[in-house]
Amino acid sequence: MKLAVVTAGTTSPSSTRLLADRLAESVVRQLGEEPEVHVVELRDLAHDIADNLVTGFPGPTLRAEIDAVTGADGLIAVTPIFTASYSGLFKSFFDVVGNTALTGMPVLIGATGGTPRHSLALDHAVRPLFAYLRAMLAPTAVYAASEDWGGADAGALRDRIDRAAGELAGLMTGKPARHRPRDDFEDVVPFEEQLSALRRTS
Question: What residues have CB less than 8 Å from 148, skipping those under 6 apart?
């Protein structure tokens, strides 16, 4: 089984690559088998992608990466959010991939940004892109703002990563994941018991 990971981070190290790696690790863990993981760093392909857009033909390096993505059994695609949408590099890569090459492919989408305000870009920009490409999208998309990587929000991000990764693993194996959300009230002591305890102590 082959898992492709496309990350459009522009710096090194990159929070976009970090999110992509965390998603891939969780998918591998939940697949129950060791897939071949191939990571495509779009930052390293920027010139090749631009040349392809101008000439209409990919060079050998870009061709190999396109083949790795289109030949995979599942895809993780993560982009930074710039000006409320995916990056131009991210969009340009999928422009040269072709609009039928991902038909029916299980895809998990993710994005990173400096503020939670940009999280809606996953649903109004990234998801429609892959719907147009006829990919089979995992229901859960993962957005990580700068504040999600530490403190109290880190656990919530980890939960979202595992839920989304489980959905992609399910799509790849044909066994859809059933995620039972945690009930925040399951450990709450009923009011009657609390009253009873108060009466005993008074």
Answer: 154, 156, 157
